[in-house]
Amino acid sequence: MTGLAIVVLLSLGRHPATGRPRRNPDDARALATALALAATRSGSRVLAVHAGDPRAPVLRDYLGQGLDELTVLDMPSGSDPLPSLREHLVALSPDLLLTGQRAENGEASGLLPYLLAEALGMTLVPGVVGLDLQGDQGRFTQALPRGRRRQIEARLPLAATIPAGTAGLPLPSFAAARRGRIVSLPALASPDPHLVAIERQPWRQLPRPQPRRLKGSAIDRLKSMTGGGEAKGRLLVDPDPETAAAQILDRLGEIGLIRASHQSVTSRDTDGRTER
Amino acid sequence: MSRPRLDPRALRLARQVEGGGKRPRFALKADPPALHSRRRDPRLLRMRALVPGARRPRYDWKRDAASGAPSAVPAVDPVPANEPIRVESPAFWVLAVLDQSTGALDETDLQLLSVARRLAGDEGGVVALALADPVLATAGADRLAVWPASAVDPAAAEARAATVQALVESVKPRHVLCSDDPVAGGDIARRLAAKAGLRLVSAVNSLTADGRIGRRAGDETWLQPAPALMTIMPGSFAADEQALREARPLELPPIAFEAARLANIGLLPVDPESLPLDETDFIASAGNGVTDFAAFAEAAAALGATRAGSRVVCDAGLLPRDRQVGASGTVVTARCYLALGIAGAPQHLQGITGVRHVIAVNTDLHAEMIKRADLSIIADAQAVMPALARLARQRQEKP
Description:
The complex is a heterodimer of chains A (about 280) and B (about 400).
Chain A: E1 5-10, E2 12-14, E3 21-23, H1 25-40, E4 45-52, H2 58-63, E5 69-74, H3 82-92, E6 96-100, H4 112-120, E7 123-125, E8 128-134, E9 137-143, E10 149-155, E11 158-162, H5 174-179, E12 181-186, E13 199-202, H6 218-226, E14 234-237, H7 241-255
Parallel strand pairs in A: 1-4, 1-6, 4-5, 5-12, 6-11, 7-11
Antiparallel strand pairs in A: 2-3, 8-9, 9-10
Helix pairs in contact in A: 3-4
Chain B: H1 8-15, E1 16-17, E2 25-26, H2 42-49, E3 93-97, H3 107-120, E4 125-130, E5 143-146, H4 157-171, E6 175-179, H5 185-196, E7 200-207, E8 212-217, E9 220-225, E10 229-232, E11 248-249, E12 263-268, E13 282-286, H6 293-303, E14 306-309, H7 311-315, E15 336-340, H8 346-351, E16 357-362, H9 368-372, E17 375-378, H10 381-397
Parallel strand pairs in B: 3-4, 3-6, 4-5, 5-11, 6-10, 7-10, 13-14, 13-15, 15-16, 16-17
Antiparallel strand pairs in B: 1-2, 7-8, 8-9
């Protein structure tokens, strides 16, 4: 088993409530994943890269997760990191590129991993919460909405975006944070041409959107908003328990939450992709 | 002199009311008020209703008083209600790429179509790229492109992105809209952006009156003209009601797509009890009417539902606090809510406003939950729950 070159991209986060700088939770999770993976394969290297200010104190917290060295492409904030990162990564030619799903500062479009994967000819797997490598074959667990998990297989070289999940930030150790080195490299800084023409206003909470209704009186609209009003569903008064249970199961089959029984084929099936 | 001269005689003649007596009569208030003036002028209305030429004054109140038109024509929609709006060659297209993650149109898809419709306005047309669904016509789609067989699987992200790219090249839409889900629509949008060199504008959360789009960046709102490719923040736009459209099938162009590099192994089984309430899709909830909690647990396990409870149940310590549904607990967005012995306090109903399907079992016919439910069963939950568990297990064993 040969060692892997794993590149992790780290960015500065921003606490959503206080606005204070912090580790980006997605990136911290990606770094933890990379370090865990490198520990299982001998000869593997974790190459962490940050594009921005090498003096940012938050970078020490990343080092505190057990990272020995962090490469920083020195550029002022607000510059486009893509050209320098692309150049740097092409020179490294990694087997695996791990990034967080989304930045917390700036545009935060989540596009950078895709552009880098395209430039490096890597297969990209988004939303990875678990990964298992056998040779050059990777098996990924993807987190889907509604708590579902999907498994995907792909071959190296691979790029994966990693969401923070609900597990919380990995704790940094103070000694490791002191021990780790930050290597600063001069980098090309160019402003992002797409972000020049944007008008910036202070953020304010938008009102909850209300649907535009085409018809109906004021009373209808009120009822539709609260969801109450007239009883509109099917009503069974004092059925025997078996009938009641059968009715409930038929309805669940129609909704597509359990497999519909053979008696009730009137259901709007969800083309067999129900998981329960 | 450029000003037109007034002709007092002609003015006087114009103000003369016909059908008076011997003496000529003039309406001094000749200038009609604005069409929807707040003030109602009964005298003017009366004068307008007067039928000219009759010996005795006759009034025709059915005449359109506001415009003085001769006969009342009820205002009709130019398009009959059941006839879809047809768009033949619009000024531009808007492409909406739908997720349909449950197999049918869900709230996110309807919001996406709603934004597409607003961007299209009266001049543009909306193309939906989706699984075929008859509801799409009522959701505002003018054209419907159906995912090809290689891209029906939601995990086939590469094939989906290639399909969108081919469709973009053939239809040339002004805007392409995707959902913001990082493993579904957002993934496709980013793949397309990387492949086609488009700039993605993500998590759009507002649309201004002058057609610009807004999104949040930290403590700023960034405003810009609507771009070619964007993802829509879920919940930021309402799913408007739409007039009926055609949803005419659109032939897909040939898709240039090399072999897929991602292989879908399948979904992993998930223990419903391990999911937080706001994430789960199916909740079985117990209220004050449930006393047999062993049967409740058994029924929930047989159905594969996540257990939850009302405030009373959680206060009594019968379920943990993080399983409480309602205003002081969790506001849930599950697809289905099975309410066992829950009367439906307003605070509890607040917690389930986002639920589409509610099934209620309760002994009280007049409970609020019965009114909220699609299927209501007036029975004792203690009797129904064991039957439900038994029947569910039976159906699992021999479908």
